[in-house]
Design goal:
binds guanosine-5'-monophosphate, alpha/beta, 5-stranded parallel β-sheet, 4-stranded mixed β-sheet
Length: about 190
């Protein structure tokens, strides 16, 4: 059986990356399966261990690094580690499925370097930093300092765009979903 390919999706936070992945993951033409990352952050309400993430203690995460069980890992937020498990990629590929990874911009660049032509790296971008700021303000879930921090981080993450194979602007969600779907379809089929 042909080995599955890798689809890397990265984006500045607040860009709608998870929503886009949610809308294409079950498309039968794409034969995707989600790579469940390891993380040391605590589960949010409704998140299930082994489904959304493999939730590890810091000790377990260090052990995974020592055992060479991770393809890559990053401290995405202070004290919060996230990493791609080798076992996940192998399991999905050996199943003949394509692996979809939702990882931060640095991880995305690193995985692309490792897998070369076997991977397609997609960068999802907000229409502009100003629009992102407005979206975060209108959501009204965060205090202004937190919004400013997220916007600053997003501006930094945007500088990674050119290191990806392709980018998709998430202005209109349906359009962004269709574009992402079509890029993946062309790559895997
Ligand atoms: P969240 O805590 O909101 O689930 O994820 C925070 C960030 O960590 C997101 O940008 C997500 O893409 C990233 N992330 C999730 N898993 C991994 C991983 O295995 N490796 C890296 N480098 N980033 C990850």
């Amino acid at each position: 059986m042909k080995k599955g390919k890798l689809i890397i999706i990265s984006a500045p936070s607040g860009t709608g990356k998870s929503t886009i992945i949610g809308q294409i993951i079950n498309d039968p033409d794409l034969k995707l399966e989600f790579s469940i990352s390891a993380t040391t952050r605590p589960p949010r309400t409704g998140e299930i261990d082994g489904v959304h993430y493999h939730f590890l203690t810091v000790e377990q995460f260090k052990e995974a690094i020592a055992n060479d069980a991770l393809v890559e890992y990053e401290e995405v937020y202070e004290g919060r580690y996230y990493g791609t498990l080798k076992s996940e990629i192998e399991r999905i590929q050996n199943n003949g499925k394509n692996v979809i990874l939702d990882i931060d911009v640095k991880g995305g660049v690193n995985v692309k370097k490792m897998y070369g032509d076997n991977a397609l790296s997609i960068f999802i971008q907000p229409p502009s930093i100003e629009v992102l700021r407005e979206r975060l303000i209108s959501r009204a879930t965060d205090p202004i300092e937190a919004i400013n921090q997220r916007v600053d981080k997003a501006a930094y993450e945007l500088t990674f765009k050119d290191r990806f194979d392709v980018s998709v602007v998430n202005d209109d969600l349906n359009t962004a979903v269709q574009q992402t779907r079509s890029l993946i379809n062309d790559f895997v089929n």
